[in-house]
């Protein structure tokens, strides 16, 4: 396979992964499964996460196949602090999430389907500066690496997917939390922190109280 054909295959593979991932995460498919096979719903989140990992193999394999040299080299004083900050920020933010629930293990263990797309609004300290901190940390890590042409087109495709995916995710968040999430969205940027747009700690607490009241009963 020529390098041009391989680059095209990389873009196609990541594009298909993003499309399939969004379809599986969408409320339309989950509602259909819930209506037709309600007994499968406790395993849906676990299945979704496992399939997401398995489906990563083809695009990653194609990207690693690309033989080109890096197009640039970040100096160590940029690359290493960026990587450490991304990993440390991700690990620190886990304190504000229920890992068993996020992975789908709690739903499977209890054999109880989640009543809603998300039980409560999560606003960790990082959420006060960007609406999707895990996406932001992932992009920080990816864009601070030395990328050859294959990885460059892959990271561009991943970036495009995260931008689109974050907007699709926010539609569901607005449906669940209504005005509280709209206020949050107007106050805080999506992926890139801006010094003049952030949420104070007291404002975050106020929005969490409003979201708890606005959430429809389950």
Give your account of this protein's structure.
- The model has no long low-confidence stretch (mean pLDDT 88).
- By secondary structure, the chain is mainly α.
- It is 67% helix and 0% strand.
- The longest helix is centred in the C-terminal third of the chain and has 29 residues.
- It is globular.
- It has one domain.
Features:
218 residues; mainly alpha; 11 helices; 0% strand; globular
Spans of at least 5 consecutive residues with low confidence: none
Summarize the biggest pleated sheet.
Answer: none
Strand runs, count: 0
Which band does the percent of strand residues land in?
under 5%
Radius of gyration based on Cα positions: 19 Å
Oligomer kind: single chain
Estimate nothing, just give the exact number of structural domains. Answer: 1
Distance between the termini: 53 Å
Class per helix and strand makeup: mainly alpha
Overall mean pLDDT score? 88
Question: From N to C, what is the helix and strand string?
Answer: HHHHHHHHHHH
The number of helical elements comes to: 11
Helicity, as a percent range: 55-70%
Shape: globular
């Amino acid at each position: 396979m020529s390098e041009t054909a391989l680059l095209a295959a990389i873009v196609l593979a990541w594009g298909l992964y993003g499309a399939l991932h969004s379809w599986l995460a969408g409320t339309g498919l989950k509602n259909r499964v819930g209506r037709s096979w309600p007994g499968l719903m406790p395993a849906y989140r676990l299945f979704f996460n496992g399939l997401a990992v398995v489906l990563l193999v083809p695009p990653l394999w194609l990207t690693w196949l690309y033989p080109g040299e890096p197009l640039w080299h970040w100096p160590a004083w940029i690359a290493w602090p960026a990587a450490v900050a991304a990993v440390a920020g991700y690990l620190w933010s886990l304190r504000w999430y229920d890992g068993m629930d996020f992975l789908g293990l709690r739903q499977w263990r209890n054999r109880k389907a989640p009543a809603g797309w998300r039980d409560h609004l999560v606003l960790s300290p990082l959420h006060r500066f960007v609406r999707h901190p895990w996406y932001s940390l992932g992009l920080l890590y990816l864009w601070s690496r030395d990328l050859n042409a294959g990885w460059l087109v892959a990271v561009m495709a991943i970036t495009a997917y995260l931008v689109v995916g974050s907007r699709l995710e926010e539609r569901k968040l607005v449906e669940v939390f209504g005005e509280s999430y709209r206020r949050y969205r107007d106050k805080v940027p999506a992926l890139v922190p801006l010094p003049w747009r952030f949420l104070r700690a007291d404002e975050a607490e106020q929005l969490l109280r409003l979201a708890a009241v606005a959430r429809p009963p389950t």
